Amino acid sequence: MTNLAVVGGGVIGLSAAWRAARTGREVTVYDPEPARGGASWLAGGMLAPVTEAWPGEEDVLRLGEASLKRWPGFARDLAEEGFDPGLAGHGTLVVAFDSADAGYLDILAGHLHSLGRAAERLTGREVKRLEPGTGSVRSGLHVPGDLAVDNRKLLDALYAACVGQQVRFVRERVEELPDAEAVVLAAGAWTGRLHPLLAGAVRPLKGEILRLKPRRGCLPPPTHTVRAVVEGRPIYLVPRADQELVLGATQYEAGFDRAVTARGVRELLEGAERVFPAITEYELTETAAGLRAGSRDALPYLGVLDDGVFAATGHHRNGLLMAPVTADAVVAWLDGDEPPEGTAAASPARLHQKEHV
């Protein structure tokens, strides 16, 4: 049975390590802060490939949909090992403030229906009935089938499940490939430093995120994930079971800078106030910035780099969503089986093709 080294202890690396260890393999994870140091710890936790989709990202959407189908079984397997990943089915509410926003919701609703996904158009008054704390919105789109996961519960569950499967942890950042029969590179924004084909193909995308809690006398957080575009910037509010509200997220090119900026905090709070005005009286409990792993085309790199070396990186804003399909792809590569639906388009071979165009 192949021994496996996984470089990276975020949601992708831990998921791959756990799934591989369940097949009886000897697995070692290399990361200075497994389950804590990467972008996964700061994620919003939305599992909503359609409401996350952007025009021209059809392959990303297909891969996200394939992974979403695997999420209930993935969560059930973790729960059966005794670890709660915090999966919730509270759905998504997308709100529109003007006619341009409303037109976008029409397109999104049609796309959802074409995929067989339930989606209900709402008037502004109906939005208010569903979420009384929302601001003055023109209309909305309710997507009841969307899932969300508590990213920190998930990471704790994956780490504990890995320990339970005898996964070994080496708490250091590696600069070269570990000595193993198979190596999976899942170090997020840092993966580009580990293989020449990924150099320049994986880049850090900075994202700031806030966590808040209602103080005494405040309206409670929304019961759904609420999404909107405010002055051209996408914003989301994701409720947690403990009354915490996750507010995100900025996105811009800033190299490996992880400082939280006053501008980022201001933009998020101003946008959130328009979506959910009561948030101005909430306690701000955490500000943080993480580095998403961006690819050249928004699609991750999944597959063979060299003999025995595999890429599982570049997931951008979809790391939590795509963790199950990526982990199952890793096991398929190791077993010599056909990888899951949607992963072929994400092959790193496209980097070779672009070099020769």
Please give a handful of descriptors for the protein shown:
357 residues, alpha/beta, 6-stranded mixed sheet, 8 helices
Task: Give a structural overview.
This protein has 357 residues and is of the alpha/beta class. Helices cover 31% and strands 24% of the residues. The chain contains eight helices and 17 strands. An eight-stranded mixed beta sheet has the order 6-7-5-12-13-14-11-15, with helices on both faces. A hairpin with a 2-residue loop joins strand 12 and strand 13. Helix 2 packs across helix 7. The chain is globular and about 60 Å long. The two termini are 39 Å apart. The mean pLDDT is 93.
- In round numbers, the mean pLDDT is 93
Distance between the termini: 39 Å
Q: H/E series, N to C? A: EHEEHEEHEHEEHEEEEEEHEEEHH
Strand content: 15-25%
Secondary structure topology:
Elements: E1 4-7, H1 11-22, E2 27-30, E3 46-47, H2 58-80, E4 87-88, E5 92-96, H3 99-114, E6 120-123, H4 124-130, E7 139-143, E8 147-149, H5 151-164, E9 168-170, E10 182-185, E11 203-213, E12 225-230, E13 233-239, E14 245-248, H6 262-275, E15 283-294, E16 301-306, E17 309-313, H7 319-335, H8 349-355
Parallel strand pairs: 1-2, 1-10, 2-9, 5-12, 10-17
Antiparallel strand pairs: 3-8, 4-8, 5-7, 6-7, 11-14, 11-15, 12-13, 13-14, 16-17
